Amino acid sequence: MLLLNTAYLPPIEYFALIAKYSDFCIEAYENYQKQSYRNRCYFYGAGGKEMLQIPVVHEGGTFRHPIKRIRIDYSTPWVIRTERALDSAYKSAAYYDYYRDGLFAILESRKDTLWEFNLALTSFCLEKLEIKASIHFSEDYIEGYPDGDYREKIHPKKCCASGLKLGKPYFQVFSQKHGFIPNLSIIDLLFNEGPEAKEYLLSL
After folding, report:
1. Could you give the CA distance from residue 126 to residue 122 in angstroms, rounded to a whole number?
2. Buried b (16+ CB within 10 A) or exposed e, 114-145
3. Cα separation of 87 and 68, whole Å?
4. pTM score over 0.85
5. What is the Cα–Cα distance from 4 to 148, expressed in whole angstroms?
């Protein structure tokens, strides 16, 4: 079974592996780590590759806290900034209006923890991709996982740990300006390809 970290609107690689394995497990007993996909994702804006980030509450050294206890910081208007950034980047994408309201409803739901928020977004994406995958959660921290362990392998600072053909192009709004950018957040694929997104993932 595939083993993954929790992630915020994860990259295409993450969902391509889920489509391949069908069942997957999310590590529920790790500690939070900064500068990872746990609270950041990348999308295609007018300036090229851009980042969205969820601020989290820092309590006595957040990196030592179990992932399920990490709380989202709503003291800044990051939800509004996120929605404006997506509107600006994808308003002309073919399927943006089709997914926008459902996505924004989750963004505005004010989930208390990063864990709850990421799970709601991942479930939303799986539904829209029409990927029927069973989500499992570890019951303790898993060490020495025999096969399919992609914890820390799918990381912003690492390139294609899965060996998938992530350079295969699909339509992107600003590709004529900046070229094709691979392995962005799954929302880039959904907004641009809609119902064809699943077939793209399976083709990788």
Report:
1. 6
2. bbebbbebbebbbebbebebeeeeeeeeeeee
3. 30
4. yes
5. 9
CA 154 from centre of chain: 11
Q: In this predicted model, what pLDDT tens digit does every residue of 145-179 receive, in sequence order?
A: 877 899 989 999 887 767 789 999 999 999 999 99
DSSP for 17-62 reads HHHHHS-EEE--SSBP-SSSTTSEEEEEETTEEEEEE--B---S-G
Q: Decide if 134 contacts 22 (C-beta within 8 A).
A: yes
Two tokens, residue 77: 């208007």
- Cβ distance 121 to 8 under 8 Å? yes
Contacts of residue 38, Cβ cutoff 8 Å, sequence gap at least 6: 5, 6, 7, 8, 32, 67, 114, 118
H or E stretch at 198: helix 197-203
Q: What DSSP string describes 71-138?
A: BB--SS-HHHHHHHHHHHHHTTSTTHHHHHHHHHHHHTT--SBHHHHHHHHHHHHHHHHT----EEE-
Write out pLDDT tens, residues 80-101. 999 999 999 999 999 999 999 9
Quote the pLDDT of residue 63.
Answer: 60
C-alpha separations of 177 from 21, 86, 186 in Å = 35, 18, 21
All residues at 6 or more sequence positions from 148 whose CB lies less than 8 Å from its CB, including other chains: 1, 2, 3, 21
